[in-house]
Predict the structure.
Amino acid sequence: MTPNEIKRIYQIIKVQLNYGLDELLSNRPLTSAPHLIRKMLFWLKNRHEDKVLGERLRLALQALGPVWIKFGQMLSTRHDLFPPTIFDQLAMLQDHVAPFDGKLARAQIEQALGGPLEIWFDDFNETPLASASIAQVHTATLKENGREIVLKVIRPDIFPVIQADIKLMYCIARIAAKFLPEVRRLKPIKIIYNYEKTLIGELNLMREAANSIQLRRNFENDHILYVPEIFSDYCRTNLMVSERIYGIQVSDLDKLRQNGINLKLLAERGVKIFFTQVFRDSFFHADMHPGNVLVAYEHPEDPQWIGLDCGIVGTLNQEDKRYLAKNFLAFFNRDYRKVAELHVDSGWVPHETDVDEFEFAVRTVCEPIFEKPLCKISFGYVLLNLFNTARRFNMEVQPQLILLQKTLLYVEGLGRQLYPQLDLWDTAKPFLEEWMAHQLGQKAILNAIKRKAPFWTEKLPELPELIYNSLKQKQQANQRIEAIYKKFIFARKQYNRAYFLLGMGATLLITSAILYNNQAEIFSQVAGVTSLCSWLFAWRTFNK
């Protein structure tokens, strides 16, 4: 470890202890060693004893920086894992992170655009509308048409902080992978690389603008999700301008109920939006914590989701999508044999894995869960148990699926918060069955023909020439193969002849020696000369 990395570890421990987070460690034999080390090495007192544990946890995560805030945001979607005193504080990390000075935000915006704000905007409010781990948002109106907008600007000097934590994570991952085989199987370096790529991508607001435009286009004709319009002429790497949207925070259940929102339908549509993005578009919003999701006021009986902050998106290739859909459907249908075979076929577990044994292990995990009502099954719990089971069979972590798994847990957490009886699997199953029918059934064949018909039509006039060229190339290839074959036969005959001459020369040499020992010198000399001539002819044959 470098001195800077050791210094950062000390800072992390110091912040945690200054906020008294060691209270999160329960008094059990397993945690006695950390308690002892804390008392021996770190004589740091809790400086915030007047605050409750949940608030101290939130403030500590904020003090540690954006990487830790992102972690807290992820935890804030799991209402089922924490008591209200902690969950309510974690939820504040979604859009109540301490803001930076609005004057500094104004200066950054003017520097990005190359002139005073008043050239392009009116009514700029230096008090931020919302503040998050990476950026904060200010309101204004467009001078050219009077439309209400929001300006999102990156926090100043944030890159070095993120870079320092990422370097520390790499260092810890390398050490852990070197000494712990279990960690090595999880591919920690690759996981951190993907996380780094995602986090650094969030710092480029031009990329977020492009993601928002793509997501808006994907749902342009579908009213279940609305993505704000982006004004790309004003966007820069550290500035994004979009239309201002009014909606209800998806976590504000009281306000949703007061507005008469159909919470059951809203929760089911959240699941549908997720699976549509993944399987139809191969492009999904991967940061769906409540701070990034609103619900439209209009049409409460026909609720509409509003997606914000598209800085983190995920993509899947066709093969991963097909394997995922088959796995989901196999789970829904309790076809554990299929689950085991798919994991082996996809290479997620080694090909030498005993399928029967793996099937039995999956069945052991899933059958007791399925005895519960479906609405009481936590998909996150199922995933956790399956990963623990697959680990025994050396299943390798698929880095390209980590964002998907995280987003799925977000969606389930939001859905259960909105409608505790949400049946995630029953909601998703019809969608997946329809998608698989489009991918593998007769519809898939017809769709493939429709999709490729323009290309075939374009190439049809060239078909006779392509066929003629193909046949001609085949004829030429056959002629070349025949010539090579003839050369091979000839060479084989030559080598056979050469080996025969070598063998004959060796035999004559032995004969010459025997004759010489028996006083037949003339015959011995003849046999010796003949042997040398035989070897000479063999050497010439080899070198032709």
